Amino acid sequence: MIWNYLTLLQELHWDDLLDIGFATFLLWVGIHVLRTARSRGVGIGLLIFGGSFVAATYLELKLTLWMLQGIAAVIVLIMVVVYQTEIRRFLERFPGRFLRKGRRSEESHSGVADLLAETAIQLSAERRGALIILPGRDPLEGVITEGTMLDGHLSKNLLLSIFDPNSPGHDGALIVREGRVERFGSRLPLSEQEEQLRDRGTRHAAALGLSEKADALVLIVSEETGRVALARDRRLRTVSDLGKLGGIIDEFLLAHAGPLQKVGRFEGFSWWVGIEGISSLVMAAALWLVLVPGAVIERVTYEVPIEVRNIPEGFVLTGVKPPKVAVTLSAERRKLFQVDPRELEIRLDGTLTRFGRQTYPITKAHLLLPPAVEIADLAPEEVQVTVRKTN
C-alpha cells in the first residue's frame, strides 16, 4: 500500500509543492507551540483525537465522523486563542532563524561561567537575592511569563545593577543565553514540593518550579541567608564550595548549549532541518498524498476468478465459462489501494446444480470488497457452470 502512495509522487506539480510548503509551515508552527512544556498534555490529547478521526474515517462511522469534524473546527479556534502568545513569539522570531547575523567566537563557556560564579559570590556576600536562568534544550516559551527583553552584553556590572534592591526587576528571574542577557524581571511557575522547599523562600520555589518543566539550570542567591543554590532536574542543592560553582555552570553549558562558535548568516537553516522541520515536512507530504491525489475517483478493472462452492454430493464440477469475470471497480484511490487483486474472488453457490441449473448471474453480492469501493461494471454478467454425476 505504501508503494502505491509513493507512485502518486509522479503527479507532483509546482502548485502541489507550494501547497505542501504552506502546510509544512502551519504544522511547524503547531508542533513548535505544542512542544513547550505546558503543552505536552495537550499534544497527547490531539494525537488521540487525530487517531480517533482516522479510525472513524477508515471504518466509515458517519455519525462519529460528523461530530469529530465539528469539534475539530472548534479545537483550531481554541488553540489559536489559548496559544496566541506562543504563536506570536514564534512568528516574530521566525525571520531571525534564517537571517541571524554572525557573532564573535572569542568568548567561551568558561568565561561566561566564571563571570556568573564571580557575580553570584559577590551577591552572596552582600546578601542580595538573585535568580539566573541558563536555558537548556527545552523551549522556555509558555513556561516563563512577563519580563523585559534586553538582549544586552553579559557583564558583572549589568548583573549587579539588575539585582540591585532598588531595581524594578530585581525580584524576577534573569535569562542568560549565548553570552547575553536575554530578559530580566521574568516570572516562573512555583513548585509545590514542600519537602525540598522547607525553610526556603519564593526564589527557590520558582527555580524548582522551572526545573520541573524544562531542562534549564537555575542559579539562586538567597537574600535572607546569602547561600547559593542550584535547581536542575526537579532537584535543589546548596553549593557549599563556591569555588566549584564556575565549573558546574561550565559543565552544564557544554552539555546543553554546545560550544560557542562563529555563526553564519543562515545558521537557522540547521534548525529547520531539525526534528520539527523534518517532522512537519513528512506529515505534510503524507497528508497531501492521502487527501489530494489519494482522493481522486478512479476506475480500475481486474480479471477475477470464479470459485463454485457447495457442489452437491455425487456431482463434480467440470467447468465454468468464462473462468474469470472482468470487474471494474470505482472509488477514491486511497480506497482502491486497500484492494489486493490476488485476494479477489467471485464465489458462487453450486447447490442448485443438482436440479440442472447451469446459468448463474453475477451480482455485487458475490464479491467481498472494502467499504466505499463500488462495482461499476461486470463483464460478462452471467456464467455457465457445468457438473456431472460421479456414479
Characterize this entry briefly:
By secondary structure, the chain is α+β, with helices and mostly antiparallel strands.
User: Which CATH top level class of the largest domain fits?
Assistant: Alpha Beta
> What would CATH call the architecture of the largest domain?
3-Layer(aba) Sandwich
| Helical/strand content category | alpha+beta
| Fraction in beta strands | 15-25%
**Main sheet specs:** 7 strands, mixed
The order of strands across the largest sheet is 2-4-3-1-5-6-7
Q: H/E element string?
A: HHHHHHEEHEEHHEEEHHHEEEHEEEE
Give the uncertain stretches in residue-range form.
Answer: 99-107, 258-273
**Apparent shape:** rod-shaped
What is the fold-level CATH name, i.e. the topology of the largest domain? YojJ-like (1
| Mean pLDDT score | 80
The beta-strand count equals 14
Rg for CA atoms: 34 Å
Please tally the helical runs, counting DSSP H or I stretches of 4 or more residues.
13
Distance between the termini: 49 Å
What does the oligomeric state look like here? single chain
CATH superfamily of the largest domain: DNA integrity scanning protein, DisA, N-terminal domain
Percent range for helical residues?
Answer: 40-55%
